[in-house]
Amino acid sequence: MGNSTPGEYQERETARDYVDRESHYVWGRRLLLTALEREQPASVTVRIQKMTLSVRPGADREQRQAVLERWYREQVRLEVSGMIERWEKRLGVKVVRFLCSG
């Protein structure tokens, strides 16, 4: 932001619609989204450079966003759990609680 005046700052990422061929980032890697509508529970999978978002037919933008945000939080929890375990041993401390909210 530096010397910018109010109104000049623009967010780095564009608004998301959660549709095919949209770019999303996981751990700094750009992935192309494939959005599928299926009669099964919502899910997110990542393979190589692709992210697949599966939602129920008729899911709107907010529902798609909620599924993906829930998945991102779970990825953070998984990564942080391993980090906490490693650093607890090194530092001789015990983490009582870790919260990851959106």
Report on this model:
This protein has 102 residues and is α+β, with helices and mostly antiparallel strands. It is elongated and about 50 Å long. It is built from one helix and four strands; from the N terminus they run ββββα. The protein has a domain at 23-91. It has one helix at residues 61-91; strands spanning 23-26, 29-37, 43-47, 50-55. The longest helix is centred in the last third of the chain and has 31 residues, at 61-91.
Properties at a glance:
102 residues; alpha+beta; four-stranded mixed sheet; 1 helix; elongated
Instruction: Supply the number of helical segments.
Output: 1
Q: Could you spell the SSE succession in H and E letters?
A: EEEEH
Mean pLDDT: 88
Q: Roughly how much helix do the residues carry, as a percent range?
A: 25-40%
- Based on Cα principal axes, name the global outline: elongated
Largest sheet: 4 strands, mixed
Cα end-to-end separation: 25 Å
| Structural class based on helices, strands and sheet pairing | alpha+beta
Layout: helices, strands, pairs:
Blueprint: E1 23-26, E2 29-37, E3 43-47, E4 50-55, H1 61-91
Parallel strand pairs: 2-4
Antiparallel strand pairs: 1-2, 3-4
What does this entry show, briefly?
The protein has one helix spanning 61-91, and strands at residues 23-26, 29-37, 43-47, 50-55. With 102 residues, it is α+β, with helices and mostly antiparallel strands. The protein has a domain at 23-91.
